[in-house]
């Protein structure tokens, strides 16, 4: 025992021995520091990549809701795989909310460590989840210069969106036939807005003037123009359609605002709907637009308290 103590005292009194001890201790500390900096950084990097991937996946998938919930799952999984979730990662699952208006995607990934292996830690796990929800659109660009009064719509059922001059009950009173004055008045402005969509932004609560006159020929030309742009095969139907189809009109829903002599002079926007045009018919002063209201997820501002008229917007909520 005495000889061991004597050896240790001799070793520690030797500067070369002390240097060796300090180097060994320093290497251990350096390895621990490198493990902390490098491998914790590696975990953080993979965590952010996984977050970005599930965010993108859930926003892509939710656009299939509420009509095609199973397709929403398929799109979300495929999008996750295309945006950073690899086949070796665990896609925990996709979950649909009540009424198919929410979609959640969750995933986890094992990350192999580099320096922490020297300390006995081979890998660590990171997880991410995201939920996107649908709610009524409260503001949008590209609206058609047509309006319909607020009501519970029957989706897929045939409606007449705009009536002709011989209608016994024009929706906005005598001399008005469902047309709006957006960004100006007159037949040319109305026709451009119906062809291409109004370039300005409309919000729920906006007061909009109505357009007098039947606008028969501008309506026929504008709707025929849109119908000619639809080249989808098979043709779009209320249950199977391309979300970007030019036959889809984004329609302001209104409550009556100001009436004079039985004619509604302006309206207050209370929401937005999507209308799939089937055809336009009539001649002379007649121009009726026929089609169906559909459920559609589109770009636009949303509000959690906004009434649902079928046109919905998506956003991350968790």
How would you describe the overall organization of this protein?
The chain contains five helices and 14 strands. With 318 residues, it is of the alpha+beta class. The protein has two domains: 2-133, no CATH class; 142-316, no CATH class. The strands form two sheets. Strands 1, 2, 3, 7, 12, 13 and 14 form a seven-stranded mixed β-sheet that branches. Strands 4, 5, 6, 8, 9, 10 and 11 form a seven-stranded mixed β-sheet that branches. Mean pLDDT is 82; it is low at 172-176.
Listing every helix as H and every strand as E from the N terminus to the C terminus, the arrangement reads HHHEEEEEEHEEHEEEEEE
Largest sheet, strands/sense/barrel: 7 strands, mixed
Number of domains: 2
> Cα distance, first to last residue?
66 Å
The proportion of residues forming helix, as a percent range, comes to 25-40%
Contiguous helical run count: 5
CA radius of gyration: 32 Å
Beta-strand content estimate = 25-35%
Uncertain residue ranges: 172-176
What is the 3D form? elongated
* SS content category: alpha+beta
**Mean pLDDT score:** 82
Q: How many runs of DSSP E, i.e. beta strands?
A: 14
């Amino acid at each position: 025992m005495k000889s061991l103590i004597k050896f240790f005292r001799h070793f520690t009194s030797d500067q070369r021995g002390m240097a060796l001890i300090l180097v060994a201790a320093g290497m251990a500390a350096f390895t621990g520091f490198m493990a902390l900096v490098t491998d914790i950084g590696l975990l953080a990097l993979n965590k952010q990549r996984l977050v970005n991937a599930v965010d993108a996946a859930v926003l892509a998938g939710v656009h299939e809701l509420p009509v095609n919930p199973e397709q929403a799952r398929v799109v979300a999984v495929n999008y996750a795989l295309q945006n950073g979730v690899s086949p070796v990662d665990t896609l925990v699952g996709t979950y649909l909310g009540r009424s198919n208006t929410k979609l959640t995607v969750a995933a986890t990934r094992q990350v192999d460590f580099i320096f922490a292996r020297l300390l006995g830690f081979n890998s660590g796990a990171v997880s991410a989840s995201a939920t996107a929800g649908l709610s009524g659109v409260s503001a949008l660009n590209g609206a058609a210069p047509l309006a319909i009064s607020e009501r519970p719509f029957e989706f897929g059922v045939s409606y007449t969106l705009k009536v002709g001059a011989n209608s016994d009950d024009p929706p906005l009173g005598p001399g008005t036939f469902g047309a709006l004055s957006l960004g100006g008045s007159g037949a040319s402005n109305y026709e451009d807005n119906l062809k291409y969509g109004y370039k300005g932004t409309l919000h729920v609560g906006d007061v909009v003037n109505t357009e007098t006159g039947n606008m028969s020929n501008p309506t026929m030309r504008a709707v025929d123009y849109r119908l000619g742009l639809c080249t989808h095969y098979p043709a779009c139907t209320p249950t199977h359609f391309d979300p970007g189809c030019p036959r889809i009109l984004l329609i302001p829903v209104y409550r009556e605002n100001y009436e004079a002599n039985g004619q509604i002079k302006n309206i207050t926007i209370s929401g937005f709907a999507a209308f799939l045009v089937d055809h336009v018919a009539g001649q002379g002063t007649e121009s009726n637009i026929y089609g169906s209201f559909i459920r559609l997820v589109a770009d636009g501002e949303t509000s959690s308290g906004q009434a649902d008229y079928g046109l919905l917007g998506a956003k991350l909520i968790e």
